[in-house]
Amino acid sequence: MPNPFEAVWNTLKTAIDNTDEPKTPLHIIEVGDCWKYVTMVEEFIRYEEIGLNTSTDDEIKEMLTDAIKVCESQVKRLSQFMREEGISLPDVTSSKPNSDSKEVPLGVKLTDNEISNGIAFKLVVCMQACAKGQGDSLRNDMGLLWLNFYSEWVTFGTTLKTLMKKRGWIKVPPYYYPPGYPNQ
Q1: Per residue in 74-83, pLDDT tens?
Q2: Do 117 and 171 meet the contact criterion of CB atoms below 8 Å apart?
Q3: CA-to-CA distance for 184 and 178, rounded, in angstroms?
Q4: Residue 16 has what pLDDT?
Q5: Closest CA to 50 of 60, 38, 35, 37
Q6: Residues 126, 18 contacting (CB under 8 angstroms)
Q7: Distance between CA atoms of 68 and 75, rounded to whole angstroms?
Q8: 9/144 Cα distance (integer angstroms)
Q9: Rounded to whole angstroms, how far apart are CA atoms 181 and 176?
Q10: C-alpha angle 13/32/72, rounded to 5°?
């Protein structure tokens, strides 16, 4: 079975060894991956802002603040990379204004369970996009950027999963017991 750490090391080693190679232009799929990811993460930030405007739970607010920091950092780095490569940035939704969570009507207000599960869903989508971007990348600098984003989501996801387990909010599909499995 391949060792994931060895694969990461080989990628880093290749990036270091190829510093003398001229940079090739990004291909169209790499550009599309960048463009979609910036759009997606910007929309992710809007969801987090909505969560901050509706939750009164300090742990949820802290988790949302951490998620916003990760998203903003990634958008900043990828946007800078895109500008340097001459890629136009997507038009994204503007920030949500701050509001008092106690004034949000109950029919509109997201529950803390809904907020955390929405974040978990968006986290999975971002991780999949990072894996796709890394797989599509021919240039090592682009591949390393995706790998970095992915590792940030893994770290954040561990914290999110701990919070969701603590609160009983993780959606677990039915367990599978193969035929003939001994009953316990």
Answers
A1: 999 999 999 9
A2: yes
A3: 13
A4: 55
A5: 60
A6: no
A7: 10
A8: 11
A9: 10
A10: 75
78: amino acid identity, one letter: L
- 55: CB partners within 8 A, 6+ apart: 61, 64, 101, 110, 112, 115
What structural domains and CATH numbers belong to the chain?
A: 26-86+109-167 (1.20.1260.10)
Put residue 174 in one of left, alpha, beta given phi > 0 → left and psi -120 to 50 → alpha.
beta
Who's near 38: CB < 8 A, 6+ residues apart? Answer: 75, 78, 79, 82, 89, 90, 92
Give 93's Cβ-side CA count (13 Å radius): 14
- pLDDT band for 135, please (50, 70, 90 cuts): very high
Rounded Cα gap, residues 55 and 50, in angstroms: 9
Structure token digits, residue 180: 């003939």
133 within 8 A of 146, measured Cβ to Cβ? yes
Helices and strands per DSSP (H, E), number in the chain:
5, 0
Q: Estimate the share of the chain in helix, then strand, then coil, as percent rounded to the nearest 5.
A: 70, 0, 30
